[in-house]
Amino acid sequence: MNIFLDVLGEVQPPSSDSGEQGVRHWKEDHQTQWAEIEGMPEQTRRGALEDADPAYRVALKSYVVEVLTRAQGVGLGEYWEKADAGTRASLEKFLA
């Protein structure tokens, strides 16, 4: 659960009507460095890497819901109840 919360801290707000969140692109977090490589081969390389990376294409909320649903099927329930209340609340808020 802590891994999910760590990852959720790296997501951007929904960019479409679907409400899905995604990983922020490097250029959004490093605008100064991006400006320095603009028009250079490095810009093309970084753009191609991000376009090919599944982390930028996977619908994060749907993925987290799917994983937690599968986990319920193999016995997450008792551990979920024992988990830190703040952690549970944070995940439930994200998944709502």
Short description:
This protein folds into two domains: 26-57, no CATH class; 59-96, no CATH class.
Could you explain how this protein is built, in words?
- With 96 residues, this protein is mainly alpha-helical.
- The protein has 2 domains: 26-57, no CATH class; 59-96, no CATH class.
- It is 65% helix and 4% strand.
- The chain contains 7 helices and 2 strands.
- It has helices at residues 2-8, 26-29, 31-37, 41-52, 60-73, 76-82, 85-95; strands at 11-12, 22-23.
- A two-stranded antiparallel sheet has the order 1-2.
- The protein is elongated.
- 0% of the residues are buried.
- The model has no long low-confidence stretch (mean pLDDT 79).
Question: How many strand units?
Answer: 2
Largest sheet properties: 2 strands, antiparallel
Helix percent band: 55-70%
Tell me the domain tally: 2
Radius of gyration: 17 Å
Structural class: mainly alpha
> Strand portion, in percent?
under 5%
How far is the first residue's CA from the last residue's CA?
A: 16 Å
Topology as H/E string? HEEHHHHHH
Spans of 5+ residues with little confidence (pLDDT < 50)?
none
**What is the residue-mean pLDDT, rounded to a whole number?**
79
Per the principal axes of the C-alpha atoms, what is the gross shape? Answer: elongated
Lateral arrangement of strands in the main beta sheet: 1-2
Number of helices: 7
